[in-house]
Amino acid sequence: MVDRTERAAGRARNASADKAVALGHAATAQKAGPKQAPKFDRRTIALVYDFDGTLCPRPMQEYAFLPKIGIEAESFWRESNRIAREEKADPLITYMHLLYKKAKAKGVVINRQDLVDQGKQVELFPGVEQWFDAIGSYVRTHAQAQDVVLRHYLISSGLTEIIEGTSIYPRFHNVFASEYWFEAYEMPYPKRVITDTGKTQYLFRINKGVEDLGDSINQHMPEDSRPIPFANMIYFGDGDTDVPSMAVMRKNGGHAVAVYPPRGSKAKCVDLFKAGRCDVFAAADYNIGTELFNRTCLLLDRILADMRLQEEIWRMGRDVEKGK
Ligand SMILES: [Mg+2]
């Protein structure tokens, strides 16, 4: 089995090239040779998404895994949460364990490829599949000749394997999600568990450019050396499980967008907005011209304007150093 880190690194390299080409700046963005004059290089924008409730309406396990083992979603989550509470266990590890415990009890074998295949049945919110090209086009036409690179990231407590099977998987520069070992005696064993607070580690990995999970994230890195400043990042989430990530974004100069189901209640988003967790909120309709699209574009306008200002400040600083 190919290690996920290798796969992620390979995908990251490919995606990086793809996005630069998509923005029409491949030549200038990728050719910073040693003989060229130093260039302002903090031109990457990162849009970071939660998955369940943000890009798809329901927890991803409900589309195929639970039906396949004949378990009703509500009773599964009720039981999982009860066990976690009673045993004082981590809720994410508990659900990952309980999924396979139930499958085993029903005599249903679900291997890695089965999980990937389940991803094809995951429903996405309206416009999600077109969103990536539409936002890429908006950034390209508003970047005013800056060599801007746009990246999309996913940070999810859900399962990497299911996400891999969705149609939008190739759109992401990198995907950080929970994952199983599939060779642990009788049942798959949690290999990586991404909790609500654990999600923030991955925001710092994106911020510092330390995306290889084999590398430690804890070394000090001065703010001005970090390749994607928080100010260039927007986090998209839908609820309480996103609060730690939204708080990290907002406290570090980044941006957060909260979404609610298009035909559902906006009460949670209103709470997040009132508590200052998000800049804006909107229904999770990702089509061009929706409130979500337009409000995201306003944040992108701000990021692009700030990028131009930061580049000018960087140029002034260089002139000051040279005594000009
Ligand atoms: Mg969510």
Could you describe the 3D structure shown?
- This protein is α/β, with parallel strands linked by helices.
- It has one domain: HAD superfamily/HAD-like (Rossmann fold, 3-Layer(aba) Sandwich).
- It contains twelve helices and seven strands.
- Strands 4-3-2-1-5-6-7 form a seven-stranded mixed beta sheet, with helices on both faces.
- Strand 6, helix 11 and strand 7 form a beta-alpha-beta unit.
- The radius of gyration is 21 Å and the shape is globular.
- The protein starts with a helix and ends with a helix.
- The N terminus is likely disordered.
- The site of magnesium ion (MG) has 7 residues, from loops.
Secondary-structure topology with pairs:
Layout: H1 4-22, H2 26-30, E1 44-49, H3 65-68, H4 73-87, H5 91-105, H6 112-118, H7 128-142, E2 149-159, H8 160-164, E3 174-181, E4 189-192, H9 199-208, E5 233-237, H10 243-251, E6 255-260, H11 267-274, E7 280-283, H12 291-322
Parallel strand pairs: 1-2, 1-5, 2-3, 5-6, 6-7
Antiparallel strand pairs: 3-4
Helix pairs in contact: 4-5, 7-12
This protein binds magnesium ion.
The site of magnesium ion has 7 residues, from loops.
